[in-house]
Amino acid sequence: MSLPKAELHLHIEGTLEPELAFELAARNGVALPYADTDALREAYRFEDLQSFLNLYYELMAVLRTEQDFADLADAYLARAAAQGVRHVEMFFDPQAHLARGVGMGTVVDGLWRALEKSEERHGVSTQLIMCFLRDESAESAMETLEAAGPYLDRIVGIGLDSAEVGHPPVKFREVYEAAAALGLRRVAHAGEEGPPAYITEALDVLGVERIDHGLRCMEDEELVARLVRDRVPLTLCPLSNVRLRTVDTLAEHPLPAMLDAGLLCTVNSDDPAYFGGYAGDNFDAVRATLGLSEDRLRELARNSFVASFLEHDEERRTR
Ligand code: ADE
Ligand code: ZN
Known about the structure:
- Mean pLDDT is 96; it is low at 314-319.
- The protein is globular.
- The protein is α/β, with parallel strands linked by helices.
- It has 16 helices and eight strands.
- Helix 10 (196-204) links the parallel strand 5 and strand 6 (210-213).
- The structure holds adenine and zinc ion.
- The active site is at 192 (proton donor).
- Substrate binds at residue 271.
């Protein structure tokens, strides 16, 4: 039986399964350079983050209308619910859509069609986190925040994703300050492929409350001590790390060592259509391969609610 859990690291565009990609391509008259779903699945062999991102952005071409975004989100919510997810804090990448001429309203209103029915349909509560693409300019991020102005009542916070190395958190200082002034929560990807210093910078300069991935903190003892002391949640994505070759094999994933160190770890799916599994599949994989005890698995599930932006009394926010 799957444990009730919250999913805190989930890119909605990364839930586009090949079958839905072809359905939307047909609906919108978009030609995909793959013969069929099998040929597309064959392309899911990644060398690193960038090789994945190339396909991730390419396939977004099929997402054109509000209904497309609604169908995408509803399909994810149904799958997540079946794997025990009770709450999701969903990332979306507006710049990738704005650049294709798809407006902020189309994206947010479309996602909202599915999100507003999610509790009733799937028993899953939802929040939206708008991510900035860190390989785009800081000015573009600021313009995106401005474009989101009319929709901020539906957006709980901001995040930072896409190609990490060479795009340090400090690049986005101003837009994070502006978002904080608007009352938005702040998270950022850091320490996925980038160095531990990016994690420190995300905390110190961007004021983030959670670190997405954060895997490479293990290279810096002082940073680990700080993350433990301040109960900073890390949203880990084990199957993603294997597929993007951040770790060589799942058996070598540092999750057990991270838990032993006292880090507030959560387990999430990142881009489940591309990485071979949804939240429950990630839990099953770490249970089977890393031999985590039932207590550890329950701790991970509990951490996911503690680390969420749901209102709750808890001991974490000492910062
Ligand atoms: N965008 C979608 N998935 C991502 C990941 N794992 N890292 C950075 N950016 C992403
Ligand atoms: Zn991610």
